[in-house]
Amino acid sequence: MDMRSILMGLAFVFMWSSAFTSARIIVAAAPPISSLAIRFLISGLLGIAIAAGIGQKISLTRGQWISVVVFGISQNALYLGLNFVAMQWIEAGFASIIASTMPLIVAFLGWAVFRDKLTPLALGGLLLGFAGVALIMGTRISGGVDMTGLVLCIIAAIALAIATLTVRTASGGGNLLMVVGLQMLVGAVALAPFGIWLETFEIAWSWQLITAFVYTTLVPGLAATWVWFTLVGRIGPVRASTFHFLNPFFGVSIAAVLLGEKLGLLDAIGVAIVTVGILAVQLAKQKPTAS
């Protein structure tokens, strides 16, 4: 893994983790589902326009179309939609920790459903990671965390894990940015009816809201997705996924700095345990390089 890949991985982790903080700011002032649908619409149209400007066309393979639909619904509509709704009641840092368990859920479902073999390192990482999550959840539940928000975040993480297992290769090849833009539009179409049906479109305008919305539209929404697929195409999904072990730390750190969210001692211990567990699971997937 060269320096450029490492920098891309770190950039993705930062952008992905920061999305929870910006989302928390947005849902405090605007309806979550409608806000996310509008974000997807803008991100999708921008992505498609930029892709068309550099010569990419809406001419995709069957696998790429499956990727567009599955990830557009599972990742954008379900995963992000449920997280946006949940963050009306729970903290951004806590939501990012639950979302960070996606590699653990993927490993568990791969073993339980697809009979993937788990090495001792992967099994140890899986048990360690879920133990860390249990510690954090136990602390938060005893502290009175909103159970509706907690359940929605768990369902969101499972939805993303299922999407990851369903479409194990989501690269767009030469039409990468076009695929990303189309995925965003699928998310917007899937969420819009629910926003119209369930929400009252009332917004408390502020510069914080505008800044957070612009940031989440351009950076986590468009740039992070493009960086991720580019990184996967550069070093492969297994090595790229190793960077996920940094998500719990970045998620709680950004929320603490920008939102003033506090992290208790048991929370910090839990984050460290989850981080080590995710790293172990990802390292277990690495195949030794022939000398």
- For this structure, the quaternary state is single chain
Rg over alpha carbons:
18 Å
> Structural class given helices, strands, pairing?
mainly alpha
Distance between the termini: 16 Å
Spatial shape: globular
Number of helices: 12
Spans of at least 5 consecutive residues with low confidence? none
Mean pLDDT: 88
Secondary structure layout:
Layout: H1 3-27, H2 32-53, H3 62-86, H4 92-100, H5 102-112, H6 120-142, H7 147-166, H8 176-198, H9 207-235, H10 237-241, H11 247-259, H12 265-284
Describe the structure.
This protein has 291 residues and is mainly alpha-helical. The protein has twelve helices and no strands.
In short:
This protein has 291 residues and is an all-alpha fold. The protein contains 12 helices and no strands.
Which key terms come to mind for this protein?
291 residues; mainly alpha; single chain; 12 helices
